[in-house]
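W.,

You were right to be curious about this one. When I first looked at the sequence I had no strong expectations either way, so I just let the prediction run and decided to look at it fresh. Below is the sequence, 543 residues in total, followed by the output.
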Amino acid sequence: MTAQSRASAEVLIVGGGPVGMGLAIELGQRGITVLVVEKYPSPQPVPKGQNLTQRTMEHFHFWGIEDQLRAARTIPRDYGIGGLTAYGTLLGDYHYDWLQRELVRPYYYTDNERLPQYATEAVLRARAAQLPSVTTLFGWSCIETEQNAASASATIVNRETGEQKIVSALYLVGCDGSKSVVRESAGIVQDRSDHDRLMVLLVFKSKTLHDLLARFPGKSFYNVLHPDLEGYWQFFGRVDLGDTWFFHAPVPLGTTEDNFDFASYLHKAVGAEFDVSFDHIGFWDLRVAIARNYNKGRIFIAGDAAHSHPPYGGYGINTGLEDARNLGWKLAATIKGWAGEELLATYDEERRPVFASTAKDFIEKSIENDKAFLAAFNPKHDRAAFEAEWTSRGSGARGEVNAYEPNYAGSSIVFGPNNAICNANGTHSDVARPGHHLTPKTLSDGRNIYEALGSGYTLLALGEDNLIAAEFAQAASILGIPLTVIADHGEGECGLYGAHYILIRPDQFVSWTGNSVSPGEASDILARAVAIDRQANLKERYA
């Protein structure tokens, strides 16, 4: 072992994939010094994590790289990025549109996007390199972590030279994937739900397949439901609009690269033969895993290090990037001294139940629903009944009452309803609701409110009375909380929010709404929003 040395930062991030780099940017833009340790010198060319939701694109907007990300897209903008579900084979008789995300577009500031994860990572790396407070160490792996009451550290090794050194920071965040060294080294336990399925990931080239699927213009991913697979998908996706594809599907346990005819499997799933040239053949176990805690002391985990699930529905990368936004502003607030001692604990309080709900209520439920459908309906046995049910599924008539709408209504730092819980079930609404994402609306001056939000907390004050807004501003100044006040006449779209005063968090979730406050209440509201013990804070400031 070579001599060990130390480097320091306020936050040390192990893992420089999308979640790690997104967190680094979130912190770096807030003036926090960050060190990122990433084992790969360049992004790995495996096309995963392709679907980026409208909410995720809001993150890229606030990170200043929305345009750059869209420019990196590998499928022409005018082609479309929609998907479809097919029965039996991809070229069979039954299809319907799938993941119609445009239905929720009015509730978000940005359009969704689709591009390979390695292209997303390249944009994130370029942005991080522009931030003077972010330092990166590419080609280094973490082998161990330690912490004490004041700091956390990682022993890292250069993958090329074998050199080892110790790097330290006030806080350490593991964004190092489902086999996280940080999680294991910190002693954070995972719970797993194993579906006992081995899955293959194929990356291949085929110009003929592109020609075969020309009948589905504007589609770039395709989900095949086959009765033999009992609800588990065969999933095709375009990497570009030429000849590169990827394919996920179950394979028999014990399958290896050498003992299975993958070309025939592809042909059967499509329903036709076509040329195939494989670039990558890999395997993964289909399971849901979630850490029992998202932190231990000064060590935190995010993204796949904290939770992992089958790549069904495009939740994975989006969930991880939401972790980064949630944890990022809380770490920055804590380091800069305007947060209470318990604010960082709300990262686990908010994000862990949202993932648990995502896995149970959407991913696993989708598998169960598809399995039940395939068992009950078959066009060979009862064509009329099958077609009626298929049409209902495609039209959304068999959809759930609640939508995928992650929210923190039960969080201790938002003013949600009594007995509310943090989860992924919800409904989209124009009304501003504590714990829910703020729907963008146009202000009286013509700007979208998302163009006016501050980097800290924001108070939207609607109407002519500015006294309450002034009280919030004064209270924020005393407590040291950065607060932007947006005063608006309240006419037009903003009236749909349903309240005169709306307190908005740095991650665009609503903290509190109201039409009035009693004397001193503004201070109490702000203190709770950042987990401050107000009396203790005031004693400290005026001691």
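Here's what jumped out at me. The chain has three domains: 6-74+115-189+292-339, 81-113+192-288, 429-541. And, maybe more interesting for your project: The domain at 6-74+115-189+292-339 is CATH 3.50.50.60 (FAD/NAD(P)-binding domain).

Coffee later to discuss?

I.
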